[in-house]
Amino acid sequence: MASRLAVLAEQLRLYKAPAPVPVPEEVEDDETISEVGFRPKKAAVLICLFQQNNDDRFRVILTKRSSTLSTHSGEVSLPGGKAEEDDVDDAYTATREAKEEIGLDPSLVDVVTLLDPFLSKHLLQVIPVIGILSDANAFKPTPNAAEVDDVFDAPLEMFLKDENRRCETREWMGDEYLVHYFEYETGGKKYLIWGLTAGILIRAASVVYQRPPDFLEQSPKFKVPSVLNKDMLMV
């Protein structure tokens, strides 16, 4: 298993990291900011891949957010969060947040590449960071109860298959796009993986397995306008 993970790590290191999405200059007028636009802040999420026992499939670590959180409560998410001023880069943000949320030691994770940024409905420019966990047995999840209700994992390839999936059509800046929903059951628990998290995992699976999904992805065009209006939000 370790050799397959090593091959994947080398493959992903060759993936061309995207250029940063330009972010509009800060608007100085507070009233203008509150009424007509916002400046996107940065965040990063960790797509932590590993293999389990005799299963040769690549799996990804996911969380179910605490039901007490003010945003996205109870939803499935990737470990991660907003960047802080002293974070040195996106990989640091993602691994720092993963340690805070689920107790994943950053020294266990080999960060191999970044994916194209996504834009969340809460005006966050989200950078997906792919990392390899070579020794899955070394990680013992310790979820932060204030942020995470549950920690689980799923096969990454499921996000390329047209199984247990449905979608809805939405609109982004005049262009239609699809929001994907994946139903997943493990350990007697059912999870719904959708929206931004599902979109990131579809993209990650496409990069890892070097093929498109079996369904129409139809992502929105992730352009950041000079002013972001309140109705220009995606899930």
TrEMBL record:
Pfam families: NUDIX. Its cofactor is Mg(2+); Mn(2+). GO terms for molecular function: coenzyme A diphosphatase activity; guanosine-3',5'-bis(diphosphate) 3'-diphosphatase activity; metal ion binding. One of its GO terms (cellular component) is cytoplasm. One of its GO terms (biological process) is acyl-CoA metabolic process. The keyword Magnesium applies. CDD domains: NUDIX_CoAse_Nudt7 (cd03426). The keyword Transcription does not apply. Keywords: Hydrolase, Magnesium, Manganese, Metal-binding. Residues 40-197 form the Nudix hydrolase domain. This is Nudix hydrolase domain-containing protein. It comes from Tagetes erecta. The lineage of its organism: Eukaryota, Viridiplantae, Streptophyta, Embryophyta, Tracheophyta.
